[in-house]
């Protein structure tokens, strides 16, 4: 019970979000989405008060709350959408809002890489949906969620654990200490380490490491995606039984 002392707003707001998400999950019976969205918004406001940071310039505060609220809102729409096409679109907007938070934290390369990677993933999702989705209409698994209560409880227990750690962690950032000469990281990733007298930027180092130190892994991942795309193209067209 000591853990729950002083965490009333945290638990209540998180419960409101969980109930709202469970309300919005696809069911056979049609429900009003306004109720679920209202619960999610109220819970999000409560979490904002719990996890608020020290005062900062109003522009940065407004930018953070706009991007964070957008990411939360579009994320809920992603997992509660009945139409997979709309789900992919909401996921794209969630990714854009998250990348905006990265830019606010002075991480433009991470934001650009996230957009590139997940934009590609969304395009692949569109291809698979268009080629493999049933043309007769939405299937049963799109119309009704499987075990929504268990899924919601599991997801929000993990979310509560993450938020608890964030709430208890110190806001002081530890300065990054460069690895010592001869360390395991320097030996295992030689191409991403600058040579004596060489100035190596962050993007240059990431490119060297990605297409140098980990070239084999990148090629394997690309080959798997290529094989999956070819397989989808091969099995998607409707053919007569017994023909290829």
From TrEMBL:
Gene3D superfamilies: NADH-ubiquinone/plastoquinone oxidoreductase chain 6, subunit NuoJ (1.20.120.1200). One of its GO terms (molecular function) is quinone binding. It is found in: Cell membrane. The chain crosses the membrane at residues 6-25, 34-52, 58-78, 85-103, 109-133, 149-167, 214-236. The keyword Manganese does not apply. It catalyses: a quinone + NADH + 5 H(+)(in) = a quinol + NAD(+) + 4 H(+)(out). GO terms for cellular component: plasma membrane. It is a multi-pass membrane protein. Pfam families: Oxidored_q3. Keywords: Cell membrane, Membrane, NAD, Quinone, Transmembrane, Transmembrane helix. It comes from the Bacteria. Its EC number is 7.1.1.-. NDH-1 shuttles electrons from NADH, via FMN and iron-sulfur (Fe-S) centers, to quinones in the respiratory chain. Couples the redox reaction to proton translocation (for every two electrons transferred, four hydrogen ions are translocated across the cytoplasmic membrane), and thus conserves the redox energy in a proton gradient. Belongs to the complex I subunit 6 family. This is NADH-quinone oxidoreductase subunit J. It comes from Planctomicrobium piriforme.
């Amino acid at each position: 019970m000591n853990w729950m002392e002083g965490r009333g707003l945290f638990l209540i707001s998180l419960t409101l979000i969980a109930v709202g998400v469970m309300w919005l999950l696809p069911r056979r019976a049609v429900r009003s989405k306004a109720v679920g969205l209202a619960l999610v918004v109220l819970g999000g406001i409560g979490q904002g008060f719990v996890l608020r940071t020290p005062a900062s310039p109003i522009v940065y505060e407004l930018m953070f709350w706009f991007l964070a609220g957008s990411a939360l809102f579009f994320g809920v729409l992603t997992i509660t959408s009945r139409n997979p096409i709309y789900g992919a679109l909401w996921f794209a907007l969630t990714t854009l809002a998250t990348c905006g938070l990265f830019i606010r934290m002075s991480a433009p390369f991470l934001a650009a890489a996230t957009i590139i990677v997940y934009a590609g993933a969304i395009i692949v999702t569109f291809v698979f949906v268009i080629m493999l989705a049933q043309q007769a209409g939405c299937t049963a698994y799109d119309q009704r969620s499987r075990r929504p209560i268990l899924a919601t409880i599991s997801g929000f227990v993990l979310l509560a654990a993450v938020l608890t750690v964030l709430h208890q962690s110190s806001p002081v950032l530890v300065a990054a200490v460069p690895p010592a000469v001869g360390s395991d990281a320097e030996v295992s990733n030689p191409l991403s380490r600058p040579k004596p007298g060489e100035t190596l930027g962050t993007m240059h180092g990431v490119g060297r490491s990605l297409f140098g130190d980990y070239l084999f892994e990148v090629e394997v991942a690309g080959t798997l995606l290529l094989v999956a795309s070819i397989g989808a193209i091969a099995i998607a067209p409707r053919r007569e039984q017994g023909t290829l």
